[in-house]
Amino acid sequence: MSSVLMVVHPAREEAEALASKSRKWWESRGHSVTAWEDGAIVPPETTLAISLGGDGTMLRTVQLALERSIPVLGVNLGRMGYLAEVEPAALESAFERIDGGSYTVEERMVLEVDIVTRATGLTRYLALNEAIVERTAPGHTIRLAVALGGTEFLTYVADGLLACTPTGSTAYNLSARGPVVSPQLRAIVLTPIAPHTVFDRSLVLGDLEDVEMTLLDGRPATVVLDGSRAVPLVAGDQVTCRGASQSARLVRFDDVHFHAVLRSRFGLVDR
Description:
Tumour Suppressor Smad4, 6-stranded antiparallel beta sheet, Rossmann fold, single chain, 2 domains, 16 strands, 5 helices, alpha+beta
């Protein structure tokens, strides 16, 4: 018997209905099911995590699954659904294939993020999409000294600066006009947000090149991880990103290429 963890978007009725249906399906086949709640511990016997929601729910599910390398199935109830594998109509078919072992697991690069603040010292986090250092006070830029691989590179004056994985390249990075990167690669993309500088291009770096961002001056900022965890920063605090040894493990069924998903999600057509 295996144990299935379900992470459900709390504000969508469709998600709750699908969660109830999913629980009955798995329990009828002899598997135990746990519905995750804030602050709960993931059962050690968990062999599959199911995300019922949008990309935000999927990111939360991946965070829970990372420590034990649990594969994650994403069910898309959001708008874009880059990370999700199935639509609600195909849910039961997906369960049948998983229960029968007819699926693959795709590994995605994760960021290891060290945050050093005066208040808390060193804290380490993992992020599937990105770490964003952004201004706190409206109407003001922040200054960030950036070192790459231990060597001073440039001081950015901007609304913020983000470091993302290839998976995260289609999130905030894309809105900031950063490049779209194939998730098959291991790389870190560094993209300035509304920079006040001549050099406003993104950088695509190796996954083991430490990206160190130090907040300068007296204007406060915040580092946001995957759109959920936020840590306040003051002058002198540092954020360092590198490729993590852990990988996110996403359940896949068919050989669907990333560029086909990109084309579909954006409705790209030839002129």
